[in-house]
Amino acid sequence: MVKKKSNKRRKNWKKFWKLGVDEFNTQYFDVTKEGELIVQEGNYVYNLNDIVKKYGSPTEIVFPFILEERLEDLQDYFQAFMKIQGYKGKFYYHYPMKVNQNKEFIMPLISEGAHMEVGSVNELWIVKKLWEGEKFNSKLRVLCNGPKTDAYIGLIEELKNKGLSIIPVIEDEHELNKLHKTYKGDVGIRVNLDTKADTHWDKKIDRFGFTAKELLELPKMKNLKLLHYHIGSQIMTSGSVIKPIGEAMDLYIKLVKTHPNLDTLDIGGGFGVPYEKKPFYNAKEVSEKIIRLLKKISDEAGVRHPNLVVEWGRYIVAPAQITIYNIIAEKPIPKGNAKSWYVIDGSFMNDLLDTWAIHQKWHIVPVNNASTNALKSVWLAGSSCDSDDKYTAGGNYILMPKLKDGENQYFAVFDSGAYQDALASHHCLLSSPAKLIAQDGTIKIARKRETADSIGKLFGWNGDHR
Ligand SMILES: *Cc1c(COP(=O)(O)O)cnc(C)c1O
């Protein structure tokens, strides 16, 4: 008798969880035979299950090598396409600080050659501290967006006078009056384009920038260097990234005639991230199209190829951090698209606030038991006492291993590196996750998990609680 071959083939769990895919930014991730989620930095391997068992949960893990690789690739694309197409302008990447101001993000980006874009006096103050500490050289350029308070303008002037290469971007009439009269350095100006991009941002209520018509009526400004627009965040199609460039270039060509030193187009941020791990546009294809378009329009108009500034923040930093939670309880869902609530040891509302604010969708993968067929459709509940503290994948469901008695079940939320930290809050006085840095094969603690005492202090409970 012939033995029956087992027809139970091992499932490809890496593929099942959409790991190892360049276009999803998961090329560094894999699942071991034991079903544990791992990350590979070159030949180093980080076992996330071991790490979270050792350091506890909830925890965020930052991967500086991912940041560095992403920025390096982006700069390479633009520089290569400029060279191939004979483009004469220069490429500058400015990192928009508001996307993530953590030191563990900023320092690797500066080391890869990022320039900075700041949106407030306090962000600029961090740049000042770095400058004074000689943490970067004088080639680093700083763009200043956001409403210009007196303190902000004061600091801009101070740093300009100290020799920092800094450009305030004028966003309205009020700033124009303030800066035009007294400020002697280079300035930029922001246009509020008519184009609507495919993003969460409702352009009808955009309040930043001048209309094209207003800009064309400005008197000659010898110190006008840069035309800037920023059209939204997490733009969903490559067409929406590229189309506004044409509109901005039409304006640029007209403005150059009046303002002879204008030489830079700053296309702001907005490049998206495939959070949902579905097909998405990519930076290589888009950067080629951008350079082609800029060259074509400026050649046809007979103007010099403008220098190009890109401020894509989310694109660079979102995939460089994950957030890991443990599941602390299960509750049945009587009626819904999922079978159970899994209650987590942290909070979507606090730690991943965009879940609540803009219904952000996340890619979620078990950290252990990721190679089991015993899966369940669940919704995730944060452990604040707020019914809005939940993640249901938009009313759909999340697949998770069935819970086993006496065993922790951890899971990772991917792409948590953009915006979530500065928006994080303390609803119900829950502690923020710990923050770990995984670099060169070692784990460092960047921020310990908050204690009751340290959170209490934020609310004025100092010491003896009287
Ligand atoms: C927020 C912001 C950015 C970054 O946007 P992303 O969508 O993260 O790329 C860039 N420039 C300006 C002016 C911004 O306000």
UniProtKB/TrEMBL annotation:
Family matches, as Gene3D superfamilies: Alanine racemase, Lyase, Ornithine Decarboxylase, Chain A, domain 1
Orn/DAP/Arg decarboxylase 2 N-terminal domain location: 90-318
Pfam family of the protein (one): Orn_Arg_deC_N
Active site residues according to the UniProt entry: C385
PTM-bearing positions, type N6-(pyridoxal phosphate)lysine: K98
Superkingdom, natural source: Bacteria
GO molecular function annotation: arginine decarboxylase activity
Cofactor field: Mg(2+); pyridoxal 5'-phosphate
EC number: 4.1.1.19
Keyword Transferase on entry: no
Alphabetically ordered keywords of this record: Decarboxylase, Lyase, Magnesium, Pyridoxal phosphate, Spermidine biosynthesis
GO process terms (BP): L-arginine catabolic process; spermidine biosynthetic process
UniProt key word Magnesium: yes
Similarity-based family: Belongs to the Orn/Lys/Arg decarboxylase class-II family. SpeA subfamily.
Protein name in the entry: arginine decarboxylase
Source organism of the structure: Candidatus Nomurabacteria bacterium RIFCSPHIGHO2_02_FULL_41_18
